[in-house]
Every structure is written in structure tokens, then in C-alpha cells.
Amino acid sequence: MLLDLLGAPDRRLGIVLVAGTKGKGSTAALVASLLAASGVRAGLYTKPHLQSYRERIRVDGEIISTAALNDGIDRLHQPVRAMRRFIPAAGQPTTFELTTALALAHFAATRCTVAVVEVGLGGRFDATNATDPHVSVITPISHDHTRELGTALRQIASEKAGVLRPGRIALIARQDTAVDAVLSKAARSVAAELREIPPLSAMVAKRYGLYRARRALSRKRDRTWPATAPLARSLRGRAGHPSGRARRRAQRRLG
Predict the structure, then answer these.
(1) Residues 227 and 157 in one domain
(2) 55: domain range?
(3) At 212, is the pLDDT very low, low, confident or very high (cuts 50, 70, 90)?
(4) Which of 68, 84, 93, 102 fits as disulfide partner to 97, beta carbons 3.0 to 4.6 Å?
(5) CB-CB contact of 19 with 137 (8 Å)
(6) Is the CB of residue 107 less than 8 Å from the CB of residue 10?
(7) Residue 251 class from Cβ within 10 Å (0-12 exposed, 13-18 middle, 19+ buried)?
């Protein structure tokens, strides 16, 4: 409803909708970068931001300007009032719903050809699923937001499968057996074209220099670790060798 009141900006865009648990944001950013490198003007809508809320909305890698963000907010006032008048029971739109509408309107206004959109939570009932994606992407699924999505992987997968569309392509990462069964069944039920994307092989990684980059990153991590050990121990709240999770968290905090 809100998108329609804004002039249906999503219908002027090719939508790539990215759901999943692990790597949604990085996958969306990579897809947008590939499109831009290929000469396709691409918008990118992700969450969360690191320093500025504007980071959530990008066009060809450039974050939305403060002026454009303020203009987008101003343009939302009238549609929101109209929506509340037409559907009083709908209540006030959430911040995420408003930002999603603003982002899509910005992409259409700046003449993007494609919008790469990261799902907020789940998939089926997420605000981003109001779009009609030309391509749906589902990254590896594991337990997340269990209070909202359920505690079983099958339940979570079923919610995220809501981004699939009839007759459209769905790119799926390699999944747990139970998750794969749910996604396959959901794809058959809507006649979506399911394509599994296997993990990058060592041969391909070596061919494109990614293997060397990974080794260099590993050496950097080993050099960084001694300095992060005290911080990692404090994160655990006790002395002793920190867990892998604490170690990674400490390294992220030190940049």
C-alpha cells in the first residue's frame, strides 16, 4: 500500500531479493558490485549501518546524501497519512518499512536499473517481500530470530522460502539437508527455478588469486592475535585461552 501511494517505485526496478541467515549483507553487496562493474546502475539496500544510517541506501557504491535522505523523508509524510486514512487498522508504519519504501523510491528516482535488497527478518512477512523480485537469493540458513521464526530449521526455512516467486529464478546456497528439502518443496509449489550455487572450489579460488588473499589474511590474523588476547579473555569474563568466537569478536573490535 505504501509503495503504491509513492507511485510504485519498485515496479520500475529489477529486484534482487536476498534472504537467509549467514552472509545476506555481504552477498547483497557483492551482487551490487558485480552489477555496477558490468555497467548496470544498481541500488543496494542493506542493514545494519556502521556509522551513519545513510549507509543502508547506496547507488553504485555511493551512500545516499543527507539532502536526498531528508527529501525522501519529507515525501513519505503524505503517503503515510493517506495510508492511515485508508487502512486505520494498519497502524503506524515501522522505521524499517518506511526506510524500505524510501530506498526503493530513491533507486527509482536516480534511474537505477536494478535494486539489490536485503531482507530484514525472515522473508514471508518482511517489508521487503512487498516487492516482486526477478531473482531471489537465499544464503545459508541456520537458527536465527527463533522467537519470531520458530526454533526448528524447517520452520525458519519455510519463512525464508516466502521470497520465492512463480516462474522466477532462485539462487540457493548449499543448505542443511532438512532446509534443502523445505526449499525444494517450496520451489516446486510455486514453480520457481531453483539453482544451487556450490561453495567456491580451491581450484577456482587459486585461479583468481583468492587463495593467496585468504592465506595473507590468515597471516595477518596470526600477527594480530597476541595483541587481542587480553581483550578476548575479558570478553569471556575469565582467564584462560579464549574460544574461537571470543577471538573473532576481539579482532573485529580492534578493526
Answers:
(1) no
(2) 2-197
(3) low
(4) 93
(5) yes
(6) no
(7) middle
This prediction's pTM: 0.79
Q: Are residues 217 and 123 in the same domain?
A: no
Q: Does residue 162 share a domain with residue 133?
A: yes
Q: Is the peptide bond before 48 cis (omega within 30 degrees of 0)?
A: yes
The residues with which 45 forms a beta bridge, in sequence order, are: 57, 117
Residues 218 and 149 reside in one and the same domain: no
Last residue of a domain, one of 182, 197, 212: 197
Could you give the C-alpha distances from 107 to 49, 69, 126, 255, in angstroms and in order? 18, 12, 19, 31
Rounded CA-CA distance 229/243 in Å is: 10
Claim to verify: residue 58 and residue 129 sit in the same structural domain:
yes
How far is 179 from 57, CA to CA, in rounded Å? 31
CATH number for the domain including 36?
3.40.1190.10
Asked if 211 and 189 touch (Cβ cutoff 8 Å), the reply is no
Residues 66-116 pLDDT 10s = 999 999 999 999 999 999 898 888 888 999 999 999 999 999 999 999 999
Phi, psi angles (nearest 5°) of residue 76:
-80, -20
Q: pLDDT at residue 248 above 80?
A: no
Mean pLDDT, rounded, for 223-244: 46
Give 167-205 pLDDT, tens digit per residue: 999 999 999 999 999 999 999 999 999 999 988 777 777
Give yes or no: residues 245 and 162 share one domain.
Answer: no
Q: Confirm if 42 and 60 have CB atoms less than 8 A apart.
A: yes
Neighbouring CB atoms inside 10 A of 146's CB total 11
Helix%, strand%, coil% for the chain, nearest 5: 55, 15, 30
d(CA 106, CA 84) in angstroms, rounded, equals: 23
